[in-house]
Amino acid sequence: MSATCVPKRDGTTRARNQDDAYLTPLWAARAILDVLPAINPDDTWLDPCAGEGALLRALAPMRGLRFGFEIDAARTAKAAAFGEVLQRDALSPEPWRPAGRRASCIIANPPFSFAMEFLERALAEVEAGGEVAFLLRLCFLASMKRAAFHRSHPCDIYILPKRPSFTPDGRTDSADYAWFVYGPGHAGAWSILAPLHHREEAELEPRVLDLLARVLVAILQPGKPHDPHDDHRVARVEEHLGRLLGDGHVDAVPLTHGGDRRLV
Hints:
By secondary structure, this protein is α/β, with parallel strands linked by helices. The chain has two domains: 179 residues, 3-Layer(aba) Sandwich (Rossmann fold); 61 residues, no CATH class. Helix content is 28%, strand content 14%. The chain contains eight helices and eight strands. It is elongated. The protein starts with 25 loop residues before the first helix and ends in a 19-residue tail after the last helix. The N terminus and C terminus are likely disordered.
């Protein structure tokens, strides 16, 4: 989700993405992991708004089976790398029964225009005693329409330590965001999540890796005459990768092999 429909200083607004789809930054997904329940290996996680699979990817260190629903075919194909993802409209009447049973924990970053519909459905679909965790704008707490719902469905609120970006340009919008967690033991407390280590915030998105790969291939192509400036360019790329990884170096992922100037 994103609040990109909020007017900018020049009075214009950005057009909203199709399906109100704003993909979750990986760091924002990882930020809630310590709060989520420790489920059994054969229990299930479900993301009914899987997008390109950021939440399923973040759940990789957790025990349990990972499932997702996604309405868009292209996003479904990408999300399938991180769990079993079905292309379907999660708000259709068909029950949410991955692996033939209710999910132990439902986690999602829903389209904000349908946030209430997804949340009510998730609370109805999760197994008894299970948990629901939704990434929502903090302003979801407001509005007379939702007041009765909040009174009857208390939750714990975990505020993100900084505003996430939901757009490729890395810009943030004017809204603050939090994880709303429902289930046993979550009765209305709030806290601010601890800032993540810069290594955890580093996101080597496929488009970034693709760009770096294309630059290196251009520099290190077989048969290309040696250019002393290329050594400097490779060193700069290595330095950049090391900074993203939080190590300061990339010894574990060498970009060249010995004296042979080829990608490895």
